[in-house]
Amino acid sequence: MRTTISIDEDLMHELMRAEKGASRSEAVRRAISAHVRRRQIEAFKRLAGSHAVDLDWREMERIEMEDAERMNKKWDKVWRARKR
User: Alpha helices, DSSP H only, in 1-56?
Assistant: First the structure.
């Protein structure tokens, strides 16, 4: 989509310094995308209430899998003991 917008000259220069090598259009697209992404993350955190949100789900999954494995070993021992 093409659109014409007025952007403060100093702000555009600052953006272009931050986005070295990007065209003006690409720099603006990146800035908008980053802003939208930050807003989405903030909204997600608000939904989580006052608890800290762990965005590293892989670490939580690893911990859960280790816990499940420990429980399986425990129940294997119980099961074997009952078979005797």
Answer: 9-18, 24-47
Do residues 15 and 27 touch, judged by C-beta distance below 8 A? yes
Q: What's the average model confidence in pLDDT over 18-42?
A: 93
Q: Is it the case that residue 38 has pLDDT exceeding 90?
A: yes
Compute the distance between CA of residue 52 and CA of residue 60 in angstroms, rounded to an integer: 13
Q: Are 44 and 53 in contact (CB under 8 A)?
A: yes
17 and 45 inside one domain: yes
Query: What residues make up the domain containing 15?
Result: 1-51
**Amino acid letter, residue 9:** E
